[in-house]
Write a structure and sequence with these properties.
mainly beta
Amino acid sequence: QVQLVESGGGLVQAGGSLRLSCAASGSVWNIGVMGWYRQAPGKQRELVATITSGTSTNYADSVKARFTISRDNAKNTVYLQMNSLKPEDTAVYYCNAVTYVPRRNDYWGQGTQVTVSS
């Protein structure tokens, strides 16, 4: 089992920045990919960014060049630095961790609200 606790959401004006953090605990030795997803009201949850244990990254086109995902394996923490925020970035952001042994399991944090005002 893996537990994820997010922090760092809030209200920011368009063009501003926020940094999200997600601390993992439990069976952290088994975590492969970690990532951030978001869900806006009335929309499906969508991928924002992922990072492997080897720090290879993947981003949604809508956030490329504005968001940066990073990972501190020693602290079992993943970060999402969000710059040049837009009102359309407003959503609940969820941390995700994937374990693969003995089979794939997805774990989710409780979510943190990010609101960008115009």
